[in-house]
Request: fold
Amino acid sequence: MKLDFTFIRKAVVWYLGITMFGLLFIAVSASAQTLRSATGGSIVCFINFLMGLSAIEYSFHKNTTIFLKVTLGGMAVRLAVMATSVFVMIQFFNFDTLSFMISLLVFYSLNLILEIYYLNNKVTQKDV
Reply:
């Protein structure tokens, strides 16, 4: 399993770009807790993204059954990890719920787009 670090760099650039764009809107009136909550949501989503890329890289060149088991089973594990981390961060670290959930929504949507793009590129390279 070898992660594509050039793609991870592109993902980091997208994360930073969206974060900077978001900071333009919330930095004016946001409290420190709001910024901390939004940052926490982006970190949780980025860890989720790296777990997804690892699952794709591990299972991509294996047979279809293993690929589907690892990818779909990995999605269930990632969802459980994400739900647990959301509970812990809101309950124990007192994150602002609204800003945390909005950042999760934005960055999780970015994750889906990037993972589909990544899989599409992998399939295209495999066919060539």
